[in-house]
Amino acid sequence: MENNSVCKLFGIKYPIIAGGMVWCSSWQLAAAVSNEGGLGLIGSASMNTDVLREHIQKCKKATQKPFGVNVAINIRAKAEDHIKIILEEKVPVVFTSAGSPKLFTKELHEHGVIVVHVVPSLKLALKCVEAGVDAIVAEGFEAGGHNGMEETATLPLIHHIRPNLPKEMPLIAAGGIASGRSIAAVFAIGADGVQIGTRFALTKESGAAQATKDRLVAAKEGETVLTMKVAGPTRLLQNSFGKKMRELSDSGVSKDELMAVYGKHNTRRGLHEGDVENGEIDIGQVVADCNDIPSVAELMVSLVAEFNETTTKMAALKM
Questions:
Q1: Which tens digits make up the pLDDT trace of 59-99?
Q2: Residue 194 class from Cβ within 10 Å (0-12 exposed, 13-18 middle, 19+ buried)?
Q3: Which tens digits make up the pLDDT trace of 186-208?
Q4: Smallest Cα–Cα separation from 176: which of 213, 144, 134?
Q5: Domains in the chain: how many in total?
Q6: Which domain holds residue 228?
Q7: Structural domain includes residue 315
Q8: Please, which residues have CB within 8 angstroms of residue 58's CB and are 6 or more apart in sequence?
Q9: Are 303 and 313 in contact (CB under 8 A)?
Q10: Parallel, antiparallel, or unpaired: how do β-strands 193-196 and 16-18 relate?
């Protein structure tokens, strides 16, 4: 896409980023997306430093194109360890989330790394501008997994943020995007690119267990719910685990009581091991429209073709 700020920033063909999802965003998925002209991200949240280094090294062997790592910075010690590995391995792009954009931006810039931060609100987007990040991801609450307290949907979020940012700041939309039509929709209101999670989680190259992919392909409208607001809003599939967390959250238990049940290994159980009833499955609302498991190459072709078809139709509209 000529003259697109996201493509120019990352050196990619299409302004499409595969979100750095826990257990799903392996080196295989990241490399496949980058090889098809997008930007693939490795999701580091579930990885120790040795595993992260292994994924980075394998990704570098699998693609000569730019790729990145997503780092959740809410646990600072772990984030610092991950940033150290990223710098040692000379990863060109880092997406940070779940914390202050000021925390690592300066250090990463000193090593020539492109820094992008994920936000759920205009307030935090403006903090990103102050911190000097290179681009901003504005993620609506349609997205799977952890969300902002504001519960703002993607379209109003982009509509609100874009006029308040410097014109040169690339703005990437996330949350509820899974088709060329939805990419066109967010571009129409000011996005320069998209970050897609759920749709890429349901590809052949995704690190999710096959049983999990099969369950999600069968998911219907309304099977995800945003819950756990006392501990941090999280969108979960409403399997046995998700229903239990929702009931506990609605009952008014304390954060500590909720987190004691939430545990530390349930995402592995649900996403990596394929326990589709008793494990945690973080997934977005748009899963109801993800009815197959294509390869990344097939998905990228579909996204681009549908985007071009949609924008051609829109160009002919008059009021």
A1: 999 999 999 999 999 888 889 999 999 999 999 999 999 88
A2: buried
A3: 999 999 999 999 999 999 999 99
A4: 144
A5: 2
A6: 210-286
A7: no
A8: 27, 31
A9: no
A10: parallel
